[in-house]
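Minutes, project check-in
Item: structure for the 181-residue chain
Input as provided by the requester:
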Amino acid sequence: MNRVTKADLYRYERLTGTMGFIKGLYDPGFRYTFFMRKSMSHNPLSVRGMFYRILKRLFTDRGYQISNEAQIGEGFYLYHRGTVLIGPLKIGKNCNVAHNVTIGRAWKDGKIVRPTIGDRVWIGTGAVIVGEITIGTNVMIAPNAFVNFNVPDNSVVIGNPGKIIKKDNPTKYYIDDILKD
């Protein structure tokens, strides 16, 4: 098992090893994340690439839809089964995404632009993140927040339209079980 898979698995109740991996496959969030990463790591026209894309597609029909072009850091955690739409963008390490979240593109000056999300970002239920924006490190985006503006490190975003509140360590107790080096 590679480092990224170990870090993803560890986020689910500190699971480790072969038995932990088997238990992790029963969790829809980890299972989808595992097949998503496998489909991204193989040539889409290879036998393995097609196999993993088919498995990923089966779980896409159950609510998750993450672009194969997305760059997602280790320790990714999907919790609560439900619709999650993530376009081809960059997400840092140890991020949590709840159900009914949309992270996607917007149009700016006639071209498609996408957000960039830092490390240790917690994204609550129903949040929408769009546009050519940067979400900093250690940020909490509250449920149902609408974010189309840059968010600095160590912040909480609440409301629609979103409002930034500076806070030391806002993701403490929200982002747990991070695999140590």
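Outcome recorded: The mean pLDDT is 93.
No further action items on this chain.
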